[in-house]
Write a structure and sequence with these properties.
The chain is of the alpha/beta class. 45% of the residues lie in helices and 21% in strands. The protein has ten helices and seven strands. A seven-stranded mixed beta sheet has the order 3-2-1-4-5-7-6, with helices on both faces.
């Protein structure tokens, strides 16, 4: 059995529906206002260029998706997919009408509602740890991306450095408190639990390779509190050979 989040998917979906209204502000607060910098690194790692097309999985309220869309201009586009109807509702409400080629839809990350090889890159930010099957999540992203395109994952993890452990201690204590302050204590207690259960970067790299991705690399940021994994969908010839 592939490794993944053991929480019932319906429960996780309902939780994200509940917190959709405070999601962006909470992300900014609990990241120590580092989230925009992390997001910028993710978009750069996707290697999206003008005219390209990006897929953002577990897109939430659409911030990463919109950044990818802007990186693909002129002439490109971006699609955001999330299983939470509440998140997609906010993403669509915030989407400027004039941004043609930017769209959001509800869908399952383990069975993405998109065509094969239709994108130049696929990204997921803070969403992989919520999936019931990490390998299947990466395999679906790889399926959606053309040969030679990028699959990028940004996720909160458990740091091992001295600085990182201090940051993790702050995270474990302050996040549930902030969650209770906004009336979402259970949801943000889940956040700390899911982070503790998420595999280390070496194991995630192994899962990505097992899903068929190549050239997997990773880099820690903010004392290792978040990790950015970058990989490539193999050329068609390599896929056929395997």
């Amino acid at each position: 059995m592939s490794q993944g989040n053991s929480a019932p998917p319906q429960r996780v979906e309902e939780m994200f529906d509940r917190i959709s209204g405070v999601y962006d502000g909470m992300n900014l607060a609990i990241s120590g206002f580092q989230e925009p910098r992390w997001r910028k690194r993710l978009v750069t790692a996707s290697a999206i260029r003008p005219g390209g097309r990006a897929l953002d999985v577990a897109c939430g309220t659409g911030k990463v998706t919109t950044d990818l869309y802007r990186a693909a201009q002129p002439g490109g586009g971006a699609v955001g997919v999330d299983f939470s109807a509440g998140m997609i509702k906010i993403a669509n409400e915030r989407r400027p009408d004039e941004l043609e080629g930017l769209s959001f839809q509800q869908g399952d990350a383990l069975a993405l509602p998109v065509e094969d090889a239709g994108f130049d890159a696929a990204t997921i930010a803070y969403g992989m740890r919520n999936l019931a099957d990490y390998r299947q999540g990466f395999a679906e992203m790889a399926r959606a991306v053309r040969p030679g395109g990028k699959v990028v994952c940004l996720e909160i993890t458990r740091p091992t450095s001295r600085l990182g452990k201090l940051v993790a201690r702050w995270f474990d204590n302050i996040v549930p408190l902030i969650g209770r302050f906004v009336g979402q204590g259970d949801a943000y207690s889940y956040l700390t639990r899911s982070t503790k259960d998420y595999p280390g970067p070496e194991r995630i790299a192994e899962i990505m390779r097992d899903a068929g991705l190549i050239d997997v690399d990773w880099d820690g940021m903010s004392g290792g509190m978040v990790v950015l994994h970058v990989s490539t969908v193999p050329p068609a010839a390599e896929v056929e050979a395997s």
